[in-house]
Amino acid sequence: MKTTQKKQFFVPEGGSRRQQIADYYREAILCGDIPPGARLPANGELACSLGVGVGSVQWAMNSLVTQGLITRCSSQGTIVNQHKTALETIGLFFYSSGFYGANAFNRHLITEVGKECASRGLNLKVHLENLSNPSVEPIYEGYRRKAFQAAIILGMHASIDRKVERLPFPWSAIAGSRKGKNHFETAAGEAVRRLAEGRVVYLDAGQAKNRTYRHALLRRALCRGDLDFVPERDAYYSEEVIPPGGVDVHHRIGYELMLRLWNEPGERPKALIAYPDDLVPGILLALPALGISVPRDLKLFLHSNAEAPILCPVDCVFIENRIADFARHMIDDCLAQCAGETSPKFALQYRIREHHFQYPQQGGKQ
Predict the structure, then answer these.
(1) C-alpha pair distances (Å), 242 with each of 261, 310, 314
(2) What is the rounded CA–CA span in Å between residue 153 and residue 99?
(3) Where are the alpha helices (DSSP H) in the chain?
(4) In the list 40, 315, 357, 360, which could disulfide-bond 78, CB 3.0-4.6 Å?
(5) Residue-wise over 59-73: b if at least 16 C-beta within 10 A, else e?
(6) How far is CA 343 from the centre of its chain?
(7) Is the pLDDT of residue 107 over 60?
(8) 8 Å CB contact between 155 and 174
(9) Residue 8, SS3?
(10) Alpha-carbon gap, residue 63 to 61, rounded angstroms
(11) What are the two backbone dihedrals, phi and then psi, of residue 76, each rounded to the nearest 5 degrees?
(12) CB-based contact 343:337 (threshold 8 Å)
């Protein structure tokens, strides 16, 4: 196949050169000028003919791989795929280690993805629940068997983040370096600044190395108020501290974090922000054990998913997101990639809702 020369290829108003390379080959593939099965020039050869760096060509080809338009084969080079303009089948995959795949968020997310697929006439296939091995090969193997055209990946390990980005077919996830950020902390900061005062503590089940961005967001959201923000130490749990009636690992983490927070020497907080919502049952179990009165002793600001309501026997503020928004975005993302279009931006919205617990009246009908 002849390669367009540099002087005919780039135009000043076309954006960066790497983007123009990606746009040119995307349009040529989608309109049939470059047919399925055709072999594209090697990156070095293409860079030389266009007068650009190999890095620009590499970026453009990675973009086409992500959109499922081409596949890199070690033996055959870069091959144009049999592209489809309509998405018919989505594969749903888990990366989890026992408890994570069974949490409330994932269960409701699966339900919402199923509803969204059904409403659009898409076929959803669920694969490899509790896939604890951090490898992309099982997903790639399913694609080679033509079990699905695009994949939704949940609970993704950071160790395979970059490998997933190089998968030669459309995929989407709510975690990963190319996806949007979670702005729960911004919404929580606004709610706390409006409704609380004094010392604020943030209980977070994440590891310290993954919390810098989240804590920075929360600190910026609180900085305009007269609030003393204290991020809690790393979450952990032990066999010695087990909440009554709770066996879920996040329940244990929430329970132990509350015990440690309230019993350590020093000033106790006036408000508590807790994330994710899996921590909430453990925190609620710890309140009577510690003799904490809410909201007299402590105001609670808790993350919640709107489709997974929490039975909360105290007054609190829920910062809610809708799991349906996650499901809709991931499917829109897969559809856009299959059509060779730019993936839509995802801006997660939160709703602040004050929860007032009403005790059952005494003497009512049994």
Answers:
(1) 16, 20, 22
(2) 17
(3) 6-9, 17-30, 43-50, 54-66, 104-119, 137-144, 161-165, 184-195, 212-222, 249-263, 280-290, 323-338
(4) 40
(5) bbbbbbbbbbbbbbe
(6) 15
(7) yes
(8) no
(9) helix
(10) 5
(11) -110, -10
(12) yes
pLDDT at 238 over 50: no
Q: Angle at Cα 138 formed by Cα 133 and Cα 141, nearest 5°?
A: 165
- State mean pLDDT over 337-347: 78
Region of poorest pLDDT, from 198-202, 236-240, 330-334? 236-240
Q: Do residues 307 and 323 touch, judged by C-beta distance below 8 A?
A: yes
Burial of 193 (C-beta count, 10 Å sphere; 0-12/13-18/19+) = middle
Q: What's the angle, vertex CA 174, arms to CA 172 and CA 176, rounded to 5?
A: 80
Q: How far apart are CA 294 and CA 271, in angstroms?
A: 10
Residue 116: exposed, middle, or buried by beta-carbon count in 10 A (0-12, 13-18, 19+)?
A: buried
Residue reference for tokens 């888990």: 94
Q: How many other β-carbons are positioned within 10 Å of the β-carbon of residue 293? A: 10
Both structure tokens of 81: 């795929």
For 351, the token pair is 């709703």
Q: Is the peptide bond before 295 cis (omega within 30 degrees of 0)?
A: yes
Contact 302, 312 (CB under 8 A): yes
Q: What is the DSSP code string of 214-283?
A: HHHHHHHHHTTSSEEEEEPPPP---TT---TT--SHHHHHHHHHHHHHHHSSSPPPSEEEEESGGGHHHH
Residue 325 main-chain phi, psi, to 5 deg: -65, -40
Task: Give the phi and the psi of residue 215 in degrees, each rounded to 5.
Answer: -65, -35
Q: What pLDDT was estimated at residue 125?
A: 81
Residue with tokens 């604890």: 132
Residue 80 CA to residue 40 CA, distance in Å, equals 7
Task: Tell me how far apart the 2 most distant CA atoms of the chain are, in Å.
Answer: 88
- DSSP 8-class letter at 90: E
pTM higher than 0.70 for the full model? no
d(CA 91, CA 150): 6
